[in-house]
């Protein structure tokens, strides 16, 4: 008797969870996290419109760093089918961060990690069961797109009988972060661990990711583009790491002045570079970093002296903590480093917003 | 005049740092972190000697997880040339962790991260400048070998005129950690961020890494092998994640009793599985984990009841913190998770050693 009961229970369980799936395809869902509404579906920026941007920057804006899909569903399972441009992967990144995704679910008003989508390492096409065996109560989901590789197709698989409701996340403020690979998210372990993503979840503000790996060289064309971004509450310029001392000296003042001209009242936060952990014993590397940060700080002081208001500076010392452990490769934060960096930036942003009240 | 001085300074700088390198080749250096001295050069265990180990376990023991080279040198630069068995890389790991290396340097009695060696992603042969432009004062170095791929050759490049002195690290105690992929180090961002490596640096104790990806199924052959490990101050059995409830029930008591027979006085710490972040919303996954941990805890209690002494248990709740953010893929800790897990284990180990005084 007991045996039959067990078999019956297994059967019920199987029925409960082994449903057929249906797929929500491109353009049945909406994508958030963009600086502008009208961009190619998986791209951050419409680079045809901003034709003067440097070619490498245009390519990087096709990576969906910081973009995400948010929806409600009463599905018990979420499976993803997706395609990326290439299988390219740097030695300092995980496949999940570069070409995969991660999913959060809201619980008691907080976004809680629910599962990751691991890409196929040999093929541009991947499929993965991100989460399964959930209760069938309706939940809110937040799915982060890959940080480092163009996404060309995505299908979201849910229970055949489940609903799917596009449910845009509503934020209290909008922050635009322009920066290097660190802003884009290397070497976070997964997309949701880039600092703009961490801080979006923590602060309830929208953090738009304009991170550009190996770039963010304070080109004036970026400030020109930023003219068109509407309703911004704060611009963050975290663009020191890949800019030479000369570029910083030549470009910072014109860039900030143009941005100020277009956005007369929006606060601007200039963030110095993290001190690269690899520069701890590398004397020349260390000297270069110090010179870059010093040059950026000098531009900040010159701008203040010149009467630019609502301009702020976050110094680079100890942004990754004091134990030199906060990086994957000596250059890019690991998740420990991103956790510390997020806390430092959050604190500064809170100060700026508090002072405005 | 000023211009000539500048050129002269640049020339001196160039001379100082752009030296030819010489290579310290295999067997000119020694490897630490092994449970036994006489193993194949880059292997953790001599699997010919322990022929009864499961085949997959034998293969995993050829990964040099937790092994390292320690030396003194007055070199200004360290470059590595190395070869791994394959270029295989899981989607949840970085190349640096799996096939690369990281280097620490001692400063004021502490090991400080100095640089990482990024592997060639397309070729089994790699070379990388890990650190350069250092002062030429003599320093102690600690170089972690890859966690996830067999290393078949390594050459350590230093300044042609520099010295190289094998300098074994001396520890206060020896701890042997038997466990799953989490012990082996997935998904640490680099080899030095596995929890046994973190804790070796923090505690001044040697933590021997017997982590076995996808394995550590409490096989009695492991306890048989552990018979021969000498001078152990603590055994840690972190072997729940890949063991089924049935395996835990059938194997834990015989395993611990045999280990106790061979090492009558050595404390043994049984660590429950971390609660997998992916099981937060996955009801069946969650139930499985709870059942595994419960079964392990029951075996612990039965062993205590049966009179086994100096046996300890660390519960799995909150080992990765309470925010569900401590993993890369829902299963393996990221560097944030490893940081938290290390703290929890360190605390428990300190308790055990304190009680013995």
From TrEMBL, chains A, B:
Source taxon at top rank: Bacteria
Every SGNH hydrolase-type esterase domain range: 172-349
Matching SUPFAM superfamilies: SGNH hydrolase
Family annotation (InterPro entries): GxDLY, SGNH_hydro, SGNH_hydro_sf
A GO molecular function held by the record: hydrolase activity, acting on ester bonds
Keywords: Signal
The keyword Signal is annotated on this UniProt entry: yes
Protein name as it appears in the record: Lysophospholipase L1
Species lineage: Bacteria, Pseudomonadati, Bacteroidota, Flavobacteriia, Flavobacteriales
């Amino acid at each position: 008797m007991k045996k039959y009961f067990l078999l019956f229970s297994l059967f019920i369980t199987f029925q409960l969870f082994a449903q057929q799936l249906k797929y929500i395809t491109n353009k049945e869902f909406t994508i958030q996290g963009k600086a502008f509404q009208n961009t190619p579906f998986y791209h951050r920026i419409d680079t045809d419109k901003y034709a003067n941007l440097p070619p490498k920057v245009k390519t990087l804006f096709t990576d969906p760093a910081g973009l995400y899909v948010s929806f409600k569903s009463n599905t018990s399972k979420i499976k993803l089918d997706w395609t990326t441009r290439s299988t390219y992967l740097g030695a300092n990144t995980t496949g999940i961060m570069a070409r995969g995704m991660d999913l959060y679910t809201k619980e008691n008003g907080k976004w809680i990690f629910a599962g990751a989508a691991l890409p196929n390492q040999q093929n541009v096409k991947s499929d993965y069961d991100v989460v399964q065996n959930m209760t069938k109560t309706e939940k809110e989901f937040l799915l982060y797109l890959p940080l480092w590789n163009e996404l060309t197709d995505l299908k979201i698989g849910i229970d055949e009988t489940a609903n799917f409701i596009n449910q845009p996340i509503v934020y209290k403020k909008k922050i635009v972060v322009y920066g290097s690979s660190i802003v884009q998210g290397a070497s976070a372990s997964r997309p949701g661990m880039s600092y703009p993503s961490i801080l979006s979840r923590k602060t309830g503000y929208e953090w738009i990711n304009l991170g550009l790996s190996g770039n963010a060289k304070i080109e004036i064309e970026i400030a020109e583009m930023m003219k068109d971004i509407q309703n911004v509450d704060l611009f963050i310029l975290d663009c020191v790491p890949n800019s030479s001392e000369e570029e910083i000296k030549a470009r910072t003042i014109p860039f900030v002045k143009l941005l100020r001209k277009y956005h007369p009242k929006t606060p601007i936060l200039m963030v110095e570079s993290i001190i690269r952990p690899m520069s701890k014993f590398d004397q020349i590397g260390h000297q270069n970093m110090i010179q870059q940060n010093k040059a950026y700080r000098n531009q900040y002081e010159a701008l203040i002296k010149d009467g630019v208001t609502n301009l702020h500076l976050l110094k680079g010392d100890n942004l990754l903590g004091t134990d030199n452990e906060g990086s994957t490769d000596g250059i890019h934060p690991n998740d420990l480093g991103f956790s510390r960096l997020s806390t430092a930036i959050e604190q500064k942003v809170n100060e700026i917003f508090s002072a405005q009240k």
